[in-house]
Amino acid sequence: MQKASASAASDKHESAEQTRFIDAIHTNDVNLLERLAAKRGDGVTADDIRWYWSLHSVVRVAMTLFDEELQGKMWSDRRAFSLSMEDLGQDVKRQLPVFRHTIANDADSPLPPELKRRFASFITRTKRNPSAFDKWSSRLHVASSMNALIRELIVSGDF
Question: Cα dist. 30→22, 25, 35, 46, 48 in Å?
Answer without folding.
Answer: 15, 11, 9, 17, 20
